Amino acid sequence: MIRKGSAALAAALVLIVAVLLVVALLRDPLELPVVAHLGAASVRIAAVQGAIAVLVPPLLVAVVAGLHATGRLDRSAAVWASGAASPIALFLVARLNGLVDAMALVLVYASAAGGVLLRSLHRPGGRPAALRWWAVLGIVPWGVVAFTQIGAGLAGTEPSAGVRVLTLVVLAAGIAEFVLAYRRRDRPGVATTDLAAAALPGVLLAVLALALVR
Protein backbone atom coordinates (compact mmCIF):
# COMPACT_ATOMS: atom_id res chain seq x y z
CA MET A 1 0.00 0.00 0.00
CA ILE A 2 1.28 3.42 -0.98
CA ARG A 3 1.47 6.06 1.75
CA LYS A 4 -0.05 9.00 -0.09
CA GLY A 5 1.32 11.66 2.25
CA SER A 6 4.92 10.53 1.83
CA ALA A 7 4.46 10.12 -1.91
CA ALA A 8 3.12 13.69 -2.17
CA LEU A 9 6.02 14.99 -0.10
CA ALA A 10 8.53 13.18 -2.31
CA ALA A 11 6.93 14.64 -5.44
CA ALA A 12 6.88 18.15 -3.94
CA LEU A 13 10.54 17.94 -2.95
CA VAL A 14 11.57 16.69 -6.39
CA LEU A 15 9.67 19.61 -7.95
CA ILE A 16 11.34 22.09 -5.59
CA VAL A 17 14.79 20.66 -6.36
CA ALA A 18 14.08 20.80 -10.11
CA VAL A 19 13.09 24.47 -9.92
CA LEU A 20 16.10 25.31 -7.75
CA LEU A 21 18.39 23.43 -10.13
CA VAL A 22 17.28 25.73 -12.95
CA VAL A 23 18.01 28.71 -10.70
CA ALA A 24 21.40 27.27 -9.80
CA LEU A 25 22.35 26.78 -13.44
CA LEU A 26 21.28 30.33 -14.38
CA ARG A 27 23.06 32.14 -11.55
CA ASP A 28 26.79 32.74 -11.07
CA PRO A 29 28.75 29.74 -9.77
CA LEU A 30 29.21 29.49 -6.01
CA GLU A 31 32.59 27.85 -5.59
CA LEU A 32 33.57 26.93 -2.02
CA PRO A 33 37.24 25.91 -1.76
CA VAL A 34 38.31 23.44 0.92
CA VAL A 35 41.91 23.43 2.15
CA ALA A 36 44.08 21.20 4.32
CA HIS A 37 46.57 22.84 6.68
CA LEU A 38 49.63 20.61 6.50
CA GLY A 39 52.30 22.04 8.77
CA ALA A 40 53.09 25.54 7.56
CA ALA A 41 51.44 24.95 4.19
CA SER A 42 47.80 25.26 3.18
CA VAL A 43 46.86 22.99 0.31
CA ARG A 44 43.63 23.37 -1.64
CA ILE A 45 42.25 19.85 -1.93
CA ALA A 46 38.76 20.42 -3.31
CA ALA A 47 36.18 22.98 -4.34
CA VAL A 48 32.54 22.39 -3.49
CA GLN A 49 30.15 23.69 -6.14
CA GLY A 50 27.83 25.30 -3.61
CA ALA A 51 24.93 26.11 -5.93
CA ILE A 52 24.56 22.42 -6.73
CA ALA A 53 25.62 21.00 -3.36
CA VAL A 54 22.82 22.79 -1.49
CA LEU A 55 20.30 20.75 -3.50
CA VAL A 56 21.59 17.45 -2.08
CA PRO A 57 19.86 17.59 1.37
CA PRO A 58 16.30 18.13 0.05
CA LEU A 59 16.88 15.61 -2.76
CA LEU A 60 18.06 13.03 -0.23
CA VAL A 61 14.91 13.46 1.86
CA ALA A 62 12.83 13.20 -1.33
CA VAL A 63 14.38 9.78 -1.99
CA VAL A 64 13.70 8.72 1.60
CA ALA A 65 10.10 9.93 1.39
CA GLY A 66 9.64 7.96 -1.83
CA LEU A 67 10.97 4.79 -0.22
CA HIS A 68 8.85 5.40 2.87
CA ALA A 69 5.78 5.80 0.65
CA THR A 70 6.30 2.27 -0.68
CA GLY A 71 6.82 0.80 2.81
CA ARG A 72 10.43 -0.18 2.12
CA LEU A 73 11.83 1.49 5.24
CA ASP A 74 11.12 0.55 8.83
CA ARG A 75 11.05 3.18 11.55
CA SER A 76 14.76 3.11 12.41
CA ALA A 77 15.86 3.13 8.79
CA ALA A 78 13.51 6.01 7.94
CA VAL A 79 14.77 8.07 10.89
CA TRP A 80 18.41 7.42 10.01
CA ALA A 81 17.98 7.97 6.27
CA SER A 82 15.98 11.20 6.56
CA GLY A 83 18.40 12.49 9.19
CA ALA A 84 21.33 11.82 6.86
CA ALA A 85 20.55 15.15 5.15
CA SER A 86 21.33 17.09 8.33
CA PRO A 87 25.13 16.52 8.41
CA ILE A 88 25.39 17.59 4.76
CA ALA A 89 23.40 20.76 5.47
CA LEU A 90 25.58 21.56 8.49
CA PHE A 91 28.75 20.96 6.47
CA LEU A 92 27.53 23.50 3.91
CA VAL A 93 26.43 26.03 6.53
CA ALA A 94 29.86 25.81 8.16
CA ARG A 95 31.62 26.26 4.81
CA LEU A 96 29.43 29.21 3.85
CA ASN A 97 30.38 30.83 7.16
CA GLY A 98 34.05 30.67 6.21
CA LEU A 99 35.22 27.39 7.72
CA VAL A 100 37.61 26.13 5.03
CA ASP A 101 39.79 23.60 6.85
CA ALA A 102 39.01 20.09 5.61
CA MET A 103 39.64 18.42 8.96
CA ALA A 104 37.37 20.81 10.82
CA LEU A 105 34.64 20.33 8.22
CA VAL A 106 34.93 16.55 8.52
CA LEU A 107 34.51 16.83 12.29
CA VAL A 108 31.45 19.05 11.83
CA TYR A 109 29.95 16.42 9.55
CA ALA A 110 30.92 13.56 11.87
CA SER A 111 29.44 15.21 14.96
CA ALA A 112 26.13 15.89 13.19
CA ALA A 113 26.05 12.35 11.78
CA GLY A 114 26.74 10.89 15.22
CA GLY A 115 23.72 12.73 16.58
CA VAL A 116 21.56 11.26 13.82
CA LEU A 117 22.76 7.75 14.64
CA LEU A 118 21.90 8.30 18.31
CA ARG A 119 18.43 9.47 17.34
CA SER A 120 17.83 6.29 15.34
CA LEU A 121 18.49 4.20 18.45
CA HIS A 122 15.43 5.52 20.27
CA ARG A 123 12.45 3.21 20.50
CA PRO A 124 8.86 4.34 21.19
CA GLY A 125 8.03 3.94 24.86
CA GLY A 126 11.68 3.76 25.86
CA ARG A 127 13.74 6.27 27.78
CA PRO A 128 14.52 9.38 25.70
CA ALA A 129 18.23 9.33 26.55
CA ALA A 130 19.22 8.78 22.90
CA LEU A 131 17.24 11.85 21.83
CA ARG A 132 18.82 13.96 24.55
CA TRP A 133 22.30 12.88 23.53
CA TRP A 134 21.32 13.62 19.93
CA ALA A 135 20.67 17.20 21.02
CA VAL A 136 23.93 17.39 22.99
CA LEU A 137 26.05 16.05 20.14
CA GLY A 138 24.09 17.88 17.45
CA ILE A 139 24.67 21.31 18.99
CA VAL A 140 28.45 20.94 18.72
CA PRO A 141 28.64 21.81 14.98
CA TRP A 142 26.53 24.91 15.60
CA GLY A 143 29.02 25.96 18.27
CA VAL A 144 31.77 25.63 15.66
CA VAL A 145 29.75 27.77 13.24
CA ALA A 146 29.20 30.42 15.95
CA PHE A 147 32.91 30.41 16.83
CA THR A 148 33.77 30.81 13.14
CA GLN A 149 31.41 33.77 12.81
CA ILE A 150 32.78 35.45 15.93
CA GLY A 151 36.37 34.86 14.91
CA ALA A 152 35.73 36.19 11.40
CA GLY A 153 34.06 39.28 12.87
CA LEU A 154 37.07 39.97 15.10
CA ALA A 155 39.35 39.56 12.07
CA GLY A 156 37.22 41.91 9.99
CA THR A 157 36.17 39.20 7.52
CA GLU A 158 32.72 38.36 8.88
CA PRO A 159 30.28 36.54 6.58
CA SER A 160 27.72 38.50 4.62
CA ALA A 161 24.33 39.44 6.02
CA GLY A 162 22.78 36.84 3.73
CA VAL A 163 24.91 34.06 5.20
CA ARG A 164 24.08 35.18 8.75
CA VAL A 165 20.35 35.15 7.94
CA LEU A 166 20.69 31.73 6.29
CA THR A 167 22.50 30.36 9.36
CA LEU A 168 19.85 31.57 11.81
CA VAL A 169 16.97 30.28 9.67
CA VAL A 170 18.50 26.82 9.20
CA LEU A 171 19.30 26.65 12.92
CA ALA A 172 15.69 27.54 13.78
CA ALA A 173 14.44 24.84 11.39
CA GLY A 174 16.79 22.32 12.98
CA ILE A 175 15.50 23.18 16.45
CA ALA A 176 11.92 22.79 15.21
CA GLU A 177 12.79 19.34 13.83
CA PHE A 178 14.22 18.31 17.21
CA VAL A 179 11.20 19.59 19.14
CA LEU A 180 8.81 17.71 16.85
CA ALA A 181 10.87 14.50 17.08
CA TYR A 182 11.02 14.75 20.87
CA ARG A 183 7.30 15.34 21.22
CA ARG A 184 6.54 12.42 18.88
CA ARG A 185 9.10 10.11 20.47
CA ASP A 186 6.54 7.55 21.70
CA ARG A 187 4.49 7.32 18.53
CA PRO A 188 5.09 4.26 16.35
CA GLY A 189 6.27 4.70 12.81
CA VAL A 190 7.42 7.77 10.94
CA ALA A 191 4.79 10.25 9.76
CA THR A 192 4.88 12.52 6.72
CA THR A 193 5.21 15.47 9.09
CA ASP A 194 8.42 13.95 10.47
CA LEU A 195 9.87 13.68 6.98
CA ALA A 196 8.72 17.22 6.14
CA ALA A 197 10.45 18.51 9.28
CA ALA A 198 13.62 16.67 8.24
CA ALA A 199 13.41 18.26 4.78
CA LEU A 200 12.78 21.81 6.00
CA PRO A 201 16.37 22.79 6.99
CA GLY A 202 17.71 21.58 3.65
CA VAL A 203 15.01 23.30 1.62
CA LEU A 204 15.55 26.59 3.45
CA LEU A 205 19.31 26.26 3.06
CA ALA A 206 18.98 25.73 -0.70
CA VAL A 207 16.51 28.58 -1.24
CA LEU A 208 18.42 31.11 0.87
CA ALA A 209 21.86 30.10 -0.45
CA LEU A 210 20.73 30.57 -4.04
CA ALA A 211 18.90 33.80 -3.24
CA LEU A 212 21.25 35.54 -0.82
CA VAL A 213 24.79 34.21 -1.26
CA ARG A 214 27.03 35.52 -3.99
Q: Can you walk me through this structure?
A:
The protein has 214 residues and is mostly helical. 71% of the residues lie in helices and 8% in strands. The protein contains 9 helices and 2 strands, in the order αββαααααααα. The protein has helices at 4-26, 50-53, 56-69, 75-83, 85-96, 102-120, 129-154, 161-183, 192-212, and strands spanning 31-38, 41-49. The protein has a two-stranded antiparallel ribbon. Helix 3 runs antiparallel to helix 5 (85-96) and helix 4 (75-83) runs antiparallel to helix 6 (102-120). The protein is globular.
* Helical residue percent band: over 70%
* Low-confidence runs: none
Q: Which series of helices and strands comes N to C?
A: HEEHHHHHHHH
The helix/strand class is mainly alpha
> Shape, please?
globular
> What percent of residues are in strands?
5-15%
Query: Using only CA atoms, what is the Rg?
Result: 18 Å
Structure annotation, total helices: 9
For this entry, what is the oligomeric state of its chains? single chain
Number of strands: 2
Give the N-to-C terminal Cα separation.
45 Å
Strand order of the largest sheet: 1-2
**Main sheet overview:** 2 strands, antiparallel
Quick take:
By secondary structure, the protein is mainly alpha-helical. The chain has nine helices and two strands, in the order αββαααααααα. The chain has helices at residues 4-26, 50-53, 56-69, 75-83, 85-96, 102-120, 129-154, 161-183, 192-212, and strands spanning 31-38, 41-49.
